[in-house]
Design goal:
The complex is a heterodimer of chains A (about 160) and B (about 250). Chain A has about 160 residues and is α/β, with parallel strands linked by helices. Chain A contains five helices and six strands. Chain A has a single domain (about 5-160), classed as Rossmann fold (3-Layer(aba) Sandwich). Chain A has a six-stranded mixed beta sheet with strand order 2-3-1-4-5-6. The radius of gyration of chain A is 15 Å and the shape is globular. Chain B is an alpha+beta fold. Chain B folds into three domains: about 1-75, no CATH class; about 75-125; about 135-250, Beta-Lactamase, CATH 3.30.450.70. Chain B contains six helices and five strands; from the N terminus they run αααββαβββαα. Chain B has helices spanning about 5-75, 75-115, 115-125, 160-180, 215-235, 240-250, and strands at about 135-145, 150-155, 190, 195-200, 205-210. Chain B has a five-stranded antiparallel beta sheet with strand order 2-1-5-4-3, sandwiched between helices. The chains are: A alpha/beta (about 160), B alpha+beta (about 250). Chains A and B meet through strand 1, strand 2, strand 3 and helix 2 of A and helix 4 of B.
Amino acid sequence: MSVSKKIVLVGHYGVGKSSLIRRFVQNIFSDSYQVTIGVHILKKTVPYKGEDITLVLWDIEGKENINQSRTSYLLGTSGFVFVIDPTRDTTYQNLKEELIFLEKNYPKVPVIKLVNKSDLINIEEFQKVLAIQNLEIDFFSSAKTGENVENVFMQLVSKMLGT
Amino acid sequence: MNDSEKLLHLKRLILNEDWNAAQRIFKRLDELDKELPGKMDTIVTKRLDKYTSEIPEKLGPVITQALSEEIKNSQDRVVDALFPIIGKMIKKYIQKEIAILQENINKQLRNTFSIFSFRSKSKKGTPKTIELIKSEIEQVFVIEKGSGLIIGSYTKHATVDEDMISGMLTAIKSFVEDAFQGGQQSLELIQYELYKIHIQNFSSYYIAVVISGPADDSFRSKLEDKLFDFSEQYMKGEVDKLMIANKLANFFAS
């Protein structure tokens, strides 16, 4: 029997949360931006160590601060993906505080920190920006090219299952 | 032999018996020192077990007495604490009973004064109630609160993915409960044309039942009782998704 896990993608509006989920679940990408109102839920079953893991992915509307997100959408989450947009510094300038908020309110829930839209930047240059601000990131990915998208979720599965 | 050696010799001769007695006492003390913790532990554990088993009998009346005195002395505080909960429960119960009563009166009036009943009366003398559309349970979902993950489900016909349904239902429910700021109130019914989704809330999960047909208040009241029975019988302790699905099928298929 498959194990089910709830994953919530968080981050500011327009960072590409919906695009990442669409790329991961349906393997499609669209350049047209459609704002998410409320929440959109998709699911994907992935094989992991001989077992089927059902990922129920909650794509919630973007907020300028995580503490503005609807608490009931975040409850019962097994893993978070925090998405930032490297082309807009407002999406990561409070990253530390927002991660502290998650750690405080959802202790022991793993968080993957992700820079999306990596196709639009020079990764090495952006790493320097992150280093100056003392920010640590887990993945650089692009919903547009599909780079690292699968790896992000598989890494989260591994963290959620504690292996 | 000098004086001090003589004195020692004399001491041994005179005090030999006392010396041996003292040695025996020291030896016994050492033995007791080793034995005592083990023996004491057993005694203390036994006493503790006895004390624990006697708590309800010995302390029960004292605690009850103390509690009743405390409640008596601070009635206002107790009423303040319980009023919102009990008041809400009573209000809800009365509203529900009135709705059922009103529904029965309306049904009775419809039956008495409808053309059909007049025809029926003229033929046989007494009015007859005919149920044209029957309420039926189409799907049942047991869903974890918070995560919205499905715990178990029963469905008559193949449907959209149950994980998606449970997730979206939870999201809608959370949104409604948050958005309208009704305090600790919960969403209990979703209605769309020919279907109703009855939502029964429990502490860590909720049960959503999709009903086709009119599903009036008396039907929902009976359904509520059935859901409480189900919860009491099968939702205790560790629950298994497959087991819950089977139980739901047995419970609601008939």
